[in-house]
Structure to design on (250 residues):
């Protein structure tokens, strides 16, 4: 197993995964390590809708839920802007690209394999958002911040951007740049889009001044560390962004 990359503060390695403390909360960005899946999904694939063995995925999800000591709640991600306000333990997942809650027994979760997982937290409520370029362009960050405030989170809010496609690797077409034309040239480097800068600007627009970034790119990181849809040509697993309220964090 290769050496793990150094993380910027305030992130830290917690076992095989990346952790960070936020106001009243903790967030975990999983790697692909520490699970039971095989083949292209080795080893901690959390994606229910991949072609992986369902029992293996279920065991992997149990392991992550144990780390949070909470029920994982997620939706069927469709690159939209719906952020579900979770007020009771969940049933069958509905279409949503974010989950937000004021409960302490559940952990909002999104699955990613190049898109950005973004945690938003304040004292009293948390959200985890699935942010690809379509969702960012449509306003999923703004909707996620709105959900956390509606659920009673106290200001100031903070955010954490997990591992995802970096500007080093994320080449896109002109139609994608056009979606962010209002942001100016700062988000573009040749044919590459700085998706994390796009996310930071959206967080600032929503009123969040403190947003930290792992600085990790899933496309060019060690293939044994993260799943990547682009690098693996679509046959790959999913890691997760998970956030939960932590009464110890004040």
């Amino acid at each position: 197993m290769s050496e793990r990359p150094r993380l910027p503060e305030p992130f830290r390695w917690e076992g095989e995964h990346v952790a960070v403390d936020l106001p009243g909360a903790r967030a975990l960005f999983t790697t692909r390590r520490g699970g039971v899946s095989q083949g292209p999904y080795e080893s901690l694939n959390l994606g229910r809708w991949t072609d992986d063995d369902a029992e293996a995925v279920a065991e992997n999800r149990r392991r992550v839920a144990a780390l949070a000591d909470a029920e994982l709640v997620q939706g069927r991600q469709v690159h939209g802007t719906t952020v579900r306000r979770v007020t009771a333990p969940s049933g069958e997942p509905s279409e949503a690209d974010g989950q937000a809650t004021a409960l302490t027994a559940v952990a909002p979760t999104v699955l990613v394999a190049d898109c950005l997982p973004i945690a938003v937290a304040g004292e009293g409520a948390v959200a985890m958002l699935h942010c690809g370029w379509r969702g960012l362009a449509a306003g999923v960050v703004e909707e996620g911040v709105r959900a956390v405030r509606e659920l009673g989170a106290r200001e100031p809010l903070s955010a954490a951007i997990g591992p995802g496609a970096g500007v080093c690797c994320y080449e896109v077409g002109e139609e994608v740049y056009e979606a962010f034309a209002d942001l100016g040239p700062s988000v573009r480097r040749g044919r590459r889009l700085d998706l994390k800068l796009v996310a930071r600007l959206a967080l600032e627009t929503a009123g969040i001044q403190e947003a930290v970034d792992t600085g990790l790119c899933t496309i060019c990181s060690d293939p044994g560390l993260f799943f990547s849809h682009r690098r693996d040509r679509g046959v790959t697993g999913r890691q997760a962004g998970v956030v939960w309220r932590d009464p110890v964090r004040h």
About this structure: The chain is about 20% helix and 30% strand. Residues 6 and 12 are 9 Å apart (CA to CA). The chain has one domain: 13-164+205-245. Residues 54-68 form the longest helix (15 residues).
